[in-house]
Design a protein that fits this description.
This protein is an alpha+beta fold. The chain is built from nine helices and four strands. The chain is about 55% helix and about 10% strand.
Amino acid sequence: MSIQSIIITNVEKLVQQMVPTITQIVEKTGIQNIGQPNMQMPSACLLQNDLQDILKLRNSLINKLNTTSKIIKSLSKTLNPLSTIVDITSKTLQTVGTARIVANVGLSLLQPPTIVPGSIPATINNIKDLEELLKPQIGIAKNTITSITTALDYANSVIFKLLEILKTIDQYLAGCNIQLSDSPTINNYVSQVNQQYTDIQNNQNNQNNQNNQNSLEIYNGFTLGIVEEPYTPTVNRRKAVAKNSQGIILLSTPLTFSTDNQTLLTAIKLIIDSNDLKAN
């Protein structure tokens, strides 16, 4: 197995390990739609014993993230693990777009939970979307990425998305007066990923705000856009498509519940780049 495949496989395993624990935390705390733009914090806290259980789960997630990041750093030891981000981020970094929306918009609007006795039942909407948010693009990457640097940047973008979710959990615990000073923290590698991806994503957000917000975009001769298909009477699934000059769809991403246009457009660009495709 190639180094790039090992990198992607390890990140895929990390997602598979972390999502059930994150789901368990969501179900207990009542955090709704975690990792999505419409995320909401609960209005109350759990009992102290339950909060300590959440803290233990949170700590296990940090340890798993740190362990995998060490493996990725070791696999990429012939490279500067973080030097490739700026070079190839235009192709892959925007996969973290939804997580950045949560950090920049959702978290800034949330108030700390009010502590009340007794546990609060959770209302969970589309909890399966959490796994979909993190995993489908890995499937695409695993089959198409042939460069170690691209695999590394892609893996780091997933680490960043997971870290944004962990920040939400930390905010909930802090709002419930749970001290994190004695708990595991992210290692230096994850911290560097977080800082560089935050800086780059903020720059991209500023550029996007200056550009036309229309989802149509020309890329390698393809006209890119977003297509919606009904899933239920009230819910749609969406995908990115690439059309030729005659308006015929030649490529598309898998259908998803994601509402982040940029994530979908990045996925279709990754398919185009990996196969060196041109519309003309």
